[in-house]
Write a structure and sequence with these properties.
Elements lengths: L7 E2 L4 E2 L16 H6 L8 H15 L8 H13 L4 H5 L2 E3 L2 E3 L13 H14 L5 E6 L5 H9 L3 E7 L2 H13 L6 E5 L15 E6 L14 H6 L2 H4 L7 H13 E10 L5 H11 L2 E8 L5 E8 L9
Parallel strand pairs: 5-6, 5-8, 6-7, 8-9
Antiparallel strand pairs: 1-2, 3-4, 9-11, 10-11
The structure holds S-adenosylmethionine.
S-adenosylmethionine binds next to helix 6, strand 6 and helix 9.
């Protein structure tokens, strides 16, 4: 058994951090042995269980070419011991009580992203009585944000963009599963580029994004599960981790309606830098941040000025 200090508390969704200097959801230490033990009865260690399963396989005389539950179990244990995230092994990730298919083509949804959903739904349900609420999700990944918003906001009309065609495939699969295909248009490309030609300039109520936000230096400190298995393009954003924010903030004014919102998920200790980037643009008001379960400023939001000032650049 591992020392108490290494334990993951999945119920409180809090993780003890060790060794790692970055107190961030994408750098949390998740021990594969504890992760597996949660799924298994009794107190056996994984190595004992692997030996037990291998012996069972041998004793049962199952042909090596046969596909059996025991063989799949043993293979899954071995994959987990190689640090493949449990969600990629089971192809399931729960986000806001919805089940999402995930594999190595997409980032595994994180609980902190629920704050982004709450922020957008609260504003949308209280201030928009329009026929349609136009939302652009930059970096759709598994589709967790776009699909959950489509489920929660009745009159949502969503444009879900990702630079990765593989991610778009996974997101479409999840949208079909959750019966929201007719509310979401999936577009492959860089940031706002795929919106060009759709006539959506100054029509968007919300630009939402959980963009890549790890710096190229921080990448080396990520835990194995993240660094070796989650897509690099979903994690890293230039030398300072801010490239994606800069690019979205820079073009947001073209697409947002007056009084429309920009809502970002940000990394630990990044909120003030993102707030400053938004302030520097001089097109936004009501710039603020919201804390997550760990009291970290996790969401940054801002509202487009109702009258575009001369200084808006
Ligand atoms: C951190 S993941 C977020 C995925 C998902 N929205 C979530 O919350 O779990 C960032 C996503 O942005 C995509 N991405 C990275 N750079 C992009 C760009 N320039 N334009 C559009 N999407 C981009 C990545 O492929 C990845 O799917």
């Amino acid at each position: 058994m591992l020392p108490e200090s290494n334990k993951v508390n999945t119920h409180k969704r809090s993780y003890n951090l060790n060794k790692n200097p970055y107190n961030d959801i994408r750098t949390n230490q998740i021990n594969p042995i504890i992760n597996l033990e949660e799924t298994l009865p009794g107190k056996s260690t994984i190595h004992n269980l692997t030996n037990w399963a291998n012996k069972l396989l041998l004793d049962s005389g199952i042909e090596s070419s046969e596909d059996t539950i025991i063989k799949r179990f043993v293979n899954n244990v071995k994959r987990r011991l190689r640090r493949v995230p449990l969600q990629y092994i089971t192809n399931h990730s729960e986000f806001m009580s919805l089940d999402f298919y995930v594999d190595e083509r997409v980032l595994i949804p994180r609980p902190e992203t629920e704050f982004l959903i709450d922020t957008v739904t609260k504003i949308a349900l209280s201030s928009y009585n329009e026929n349609e609420v136009f939302i652009v999700d930059i970096g759709v990944g598994s589709g967790n944000i776009a699909i959950t918003l489509a489920k929660k906001i009745k009159n949502a009309r969503i444009f879900a963009i990702d630079i990765s065609p593989n991610a778009i495939e996974v997101a479409k699969f999840n949208a079909q599963r959750h019966n929201v295909m007719e509310k979401i248009t999936f577009l492959c490309g860089d940031t706002f580029k795929p919106l060009k030609g759709l006539g959506l300039e100054s029509k968007i109520n919300f630009i939402v994004s959980n963009p890549p936000y790890i710096s190229s230096d921080e990448f080396h400190f990520l835990q194995e599960e993240v660094k070796c298995f989650e897509p690099y393009t979903a994690l890293v954003s230039g030398k300072d981790g801010l490239e994606a924010f800069k690019s979205i903030i820079s073009d947001a004014k073209t697409w947002l309606k007056r009084n429309g919102f920009i809502v970002f998920e940000v990394a630990d200790r990044q909120a003030q830098k993102v707030v400053q980037l938004i302030k520097d643009k001089r097109c936004f008001k009501n710039i603020d941040s919201i804390k997550d379960y760990q009291k970290i400023d996790r969401i940054v939001f801002a509202q487009m000025e109702d009258i575009r000032g001369q200084n808006c650049n």
